[in-house]
Amino acid sequence: MESPLREDASPTVNEDPAARVDADAGSGAPPQRGVSRVTWYKDWLLPVTVLTVLALDQASKQMVKSFLPLYDSWPDDGFIRITHGTNTGTAFSLFQDQTTALIVASLFAIGFLFYFYRTQAMASRLMRCAIGLQLGGALGNLVDRLRDGAVVDFIDVGWWPIFNLADSCIVTGIAVLLGAMVFGADGTKKPPEEDAAELGAAGRADPGSQQGDALGKQDPPV
Fold it and tell me: Which of 61, 80, 74 shows the shortest CA–CA distance to 167?
């Protein structure tokens, strides 16, 4: 007796690898084969960068407070000096006497940076390092505001407002992040022919396009 044929069988459709990569990137799933992506809780680069910046920032501020009286400079004259100052505003002495508002703004900035790291920067070491510099600097100044109500500044360069190591790391991290977003993680822009090739590959991988091509190639009915 013949076994009944299964009429519900459907042909196997090859899954688009690019679609799988996009889905994994949006959902935070582990990387598929050939995709360089780390899980956020297994990433060592971000916490090492954040903790290094935070430790160096707090150590440098403590040394200045211990060995240099407030508002004194070493040396007395020169273009670059160490000057012990305090700052109740943002980086480079902007928005003075806004400690509470700056604490709230710092918390929002830290949350946004972590969100950006989770959604955009995890596949690139350069971008993860840039996020770590910004997070470490933001945490360093936040610790000062919560503990003392003001930030310790000590790097005195010419006419520029006095700043600290945390400010330098924040600005450096922003510059590196913008550069990575504009030029790519390897520091070079994609050539136009590479973009055209990627668009062509995406079009060939589109099942709708393939189906339309197949229908277009069918012989007209007789």
Answer: 61
List pLDDT tens digits, range 12-58: 445 444 444 444 444 444 444 444 556 656 788 999 999 999 999 99
Residues linked to residue 153 through DSSP beta bridges, in sequence order? 85
Residues 75-88: what's their mean pLDDT? 92
Instruction: List the beta strands (DSSP E) in 52-180.
Output: 73-74, 80-87, 151-157
Number of neighbouring beta carbons within 10 Å of residue 124: 19
Residues assigned a catalytic role: 153, 167
- State which amino acid sits at residue 16: D
> What is the rounded average pLDDT of the residues 161-175?
94
Spatial separation of the C-alpha atoms in residues 141 and 102, rounded to whole Å: 10
Grouping H, G, I as helix, E, B as strand and the rest as coil, residue 43 is coil
Q: In 74-110, which positions are buried (b, 16+ CB within 10 angstroms) versus exposed (e)?
A: eeeeeeebbbbbbbbbbbebeeeeebeebeeebeebe
Report if pTM > 0.70. no
